Amino acid sequence: MEHTTASSVRIDPWSDSDLELLRRANAPELMDHLGGPESEEQLINRHGRYAALSADRTGRGRMFRIALTGEDEAVGAIGFWERTWQGQEVYETGWAVLAGFQGRGIASAATAAVAVAEQARAEHKRRYLHAYPSVANGASNGVCRKTGFTLLGECEVEYPPGHPLLTNDWRLDLHPDR
Question: What is the pTM of this model?
């Protein structure tokens, strides 16, 4: 299977036209580690949050569609947003790659320094970028490992809200020179 490099992936700001991508990413096999597929109403609400976040220029975060360089079709989504974690203001990141494009390094390329981590770094607002993949999600934990995140240990987060999920807490220092 072809391996994707950072130069063969681009991220484009989330827009109103990306609702169909969110629907495609709502497949049971892609939502297995996140509590299962969402309802249409939940998807529409999430799409609205993504579009608002991408339009915001205050450093709260951004959402992006992932596409292969030279292609128009989106193959996934990735972003970062603010959250309070253990009393500290940090960024959180998350991603989804459509089933037909998994296993090619797309999520790693989109997370790498040239993509989402670089976007979060450019905000000069938060020192750390965290990812919280389910402990059972080997692929997403592998993305964190490959892209320079440090495993801090297991923790419990609520996702979706009201549902505890056992995850790994991965952290990337956006400004190691500080």
Answer: 0.89
